[in-house]
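Researcher: We plan to redesign the surface later, but first we want a full-length starting point. Tokens attached.
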């Protein structure tokens, strides 16, 4: 099997968070098991980072942006979990 190229998962997750990249099965196809686990872990870590930030109670626009980022990350996690289940890959 060919060597998997090194990826910067933090950069991929940042692009997903900002909406520049969408995670779908075609995007995940070249990922091997280790890369898929690393991407999954990086997304979970980014979710925690966003949730730790102080909640902007009085700024509707910031609340909307925060929730949109969390929604994108959650959607990416669901797609990764379903893709891994189809390929019989354990993410834990």
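Model: Full-length starting sequence:
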């Amino acid at each position: 099997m060919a060597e998997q190229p090194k990826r910067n998962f933090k950069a991929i997750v940042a692009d997903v968070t900002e909406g520049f990249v969408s995670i779908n099965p075609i995007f995940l196809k070249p990922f091997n098991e280790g890369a898929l686990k690393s991407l999954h872990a990086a997304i979970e870590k980014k979710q925690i980072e966003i949730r730790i930030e102080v909640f902007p109670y009085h700024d509707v626009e910031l609340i909307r942006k925060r929730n949109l980022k969390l929604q994108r990350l959650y959607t990416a996690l669901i797609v990764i979990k379903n893709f891994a289940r189809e390929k019989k890959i354990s993410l834990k």
